[in-house]
């Protein structure tokens, strides 16, 4: 039985997989079983923030694994407390954290916080949460219902009540009623098509919500952990959300999610929990990721390479105006908006054939989420291969 046959026979078919077998990786370069190299502009969907095969991260994980991997949240967890302190200090927000294992799970916790905030004297007073069309908040039943893409709601109902979808930020205010407790948004929609929100509109929204005592939840599962150049996109947008959720890039590949909130005393023991969440292994890994990226940011290298990458993509968008509407995104979360879904899907295929990995987003966007530590040479090589893919499409 080949590996592919084994996968098809024994694993549920939830992904349109490419049947390549990667054996090892260094930074933004992956090698398959024949030793062929691929430039990785996906970082495992925004996860491998410090690159593949990162020495510092793997050593930290090994050291921790040899000692304690897990003891449960019934006891003090040293790297968890340190990680919480660091995230609070680096973010500049007066908050506390809860650790989960994924983005969807972090969002579930955020929704629970909002629901509890809306409760008065044990009676549900406010429970509605407004999210945006084309948003993505995860795959669990509630996070899926929070996701403003009706097509994804097929088959899985009945869902929890109380989710309302706004066409865009401008429409949120008129959807608020006496039952609304929170608004949940991504500052740059990721899966929805790399769609950054307008800074001023977001700031006005935050102000309006404060006045109405409606919570602002920012889903930073994709935008967080320096993806936009700042620790959090909320820092970049200069807002103070009530709740922020994190996951993807935080553990550098070790599963971890987190909820940060200024509602520091909302949960009492027993209100929420997680067996694995915030264990020694994942929080030790996340501490190392934060150390590496903070140094990278402070050295000026992160910003320099982000600008370098942006310029490259802008050139491509300009050179192939026949294929692309425009270049979009912030920092290392970028996209090329193709003129059609057909161009998008052909480019994804051709890129793979030319050994550069890129992602789909929305209906017609090719998305780029490289490791934040990608080198200039890897950017050059990846862009060259991507351009080859474009040219093969033109013929
Ligand atoms: C990926 C993503 C999620 C879901 O994260 P999982 O770890 O897959 O559950 C939620 N929100 C946003 C914005 C994401 O990009």
List the helices and strands and how they pair.
Elements: H1 3-10, E1 22-26, E2 29-32, E3 37-40, H2 43-46, H3 55-67, H4 78-91, E4 96-100, H5 103-117, E5 119-120, E6 123-124, E7 128-132, H6 141-146, E8 163-166, H7 169-175, E9 180-185, E10 188-189, E11 195-196, H8 199-212, E12 215-219, H9 233-236, E13 243-246, E14 257-261, H10 280-298, H11 301-319, E15 324-330, E16 333-338, H12 341-353, E17 356-357, E18 359-361, E19 365-368, H13 376-394
Parallel strand pairs: 3-17, 7-8, 7-9, 9-12, 12-13
Antiparallel strand pairs: 1-2, 2-3, 4-14, 5-6, 10-11, 13-14, 15-16, 16-19, 18-19
Helix pairs in contact: 3-10, 4-10, 7-8, 11-13, 12-13
The structure holds pyridoxal-5'-phosphate.
Overall description:
By secondary structure, the protein is α/β, with parallel strands linked by helices. The protein has three domains: 1-39, no CATH class; 57-298, 3-Layer(aba) Sandwich (Aspartate Aminotransferase, domain 2); 300-346 and 378-395. It is 39% helix and 19% strand. The protein has helices at residues 3-10, 43-46, 55-67, 78-91, 103-117, 141-146, 169-175, 199-212, 233-236, 280-298, 301-319, 341-353, 376-394; strands at residues 22-26, 29-32, 37-40, 96-100, 119-120, 123-124, 128-132, 163-166, 180-185, 188-189, 195-196, 215-219, 243-246, 257-261, 324-330, 333-338, 356-357, 359-361, 365-368. β2 (29-32) and β3 form a beta hairpin. It is globular, with a radius of gyration of 21 Å. The two termini are 38 Å apart. It binds pyridoxal-5'-phosphate. Residues 102-104, 107, 136-138, 186, 190-191, 219, 221-222, 247-248 line the site of pyridoxal-5'-phosphate.
């Amino acid at each position: 039985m080949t590996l592919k046959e084994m996968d098809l026979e024994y694993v549920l078919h939830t992904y349109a997989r490419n049947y390549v077998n990667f054996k090892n990786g260094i930074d933004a370069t992956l090698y398959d079983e024949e030793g062929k190299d691929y430039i990785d502009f996906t970082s495992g969907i925004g996860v491998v923030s410090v690159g593949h095969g990162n020495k510092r991260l793997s050593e930290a994980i090994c050291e921790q694994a040899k000692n304690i991997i897990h003891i449960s949240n019934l006891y003090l967890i040293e790297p968890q407390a340190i990680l919480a302190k660091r995230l609070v200090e680096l973010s500049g927000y007066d908050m506390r954290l809860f650790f989960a294992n994924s983005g969807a799970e972090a969002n579930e916790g955020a929704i629970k916080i909002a629901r509890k905030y809306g409760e008065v004297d044990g009676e549900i007073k406010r429970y509605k949460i407004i999210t945006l069309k084309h948003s993505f908040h995860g795959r669990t039943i509630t996070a899926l219902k929070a996701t403003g893409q009706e097509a994804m709601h097929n088959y899985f109902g009945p869902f929890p009540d109380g989710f309302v979808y706004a066409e865009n930020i401008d429409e949120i205010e008129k959807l608020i009623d006496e039952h609304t407790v929170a608004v949940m948004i991504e500052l740059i929609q990721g899966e929805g098509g790399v769609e950054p929100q307008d800074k001023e509109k977001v700031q006005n929204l935050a102000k309006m919500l404060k006045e109405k005592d409606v919570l602002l939840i920012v889903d930073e599962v994709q935008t967080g952990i320096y993806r936009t150049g700042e620790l959090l996109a909320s820092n970049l947008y200069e807002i103070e959300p009530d709740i922020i959720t994190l996951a993807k890039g935080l553990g550098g590949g070790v599963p971890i999610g987190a909820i940060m909130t200024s509602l520091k005393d909302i949960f009492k023991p027993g209100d929420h929990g997680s067996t694995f969440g915030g264990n020694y292994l994942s929080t030790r890994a996340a501490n190392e990721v934060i150390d590496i990226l903070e140094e990278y940011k402070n050295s000026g290298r992160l910003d320099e390479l982000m600008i370098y990458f942006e310029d490259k993509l802008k050139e491509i968008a300009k050179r192939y105006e026949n294929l692309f509407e425009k270049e979009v995104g912030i920092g290392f979360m970028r996209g090329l908006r193709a003129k059609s879904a057909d161009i998008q899907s052909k480019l994804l295929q051709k890129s793979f054939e030319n050994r550069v990995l890129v992602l789909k987003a929305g209906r017609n966007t090719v998305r780029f989420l490289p490791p934040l530590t990608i080198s200039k040479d890897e950017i050059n090589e990846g862009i060259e291969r991507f351009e080859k893919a474009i040219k093969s499409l033109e013929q």
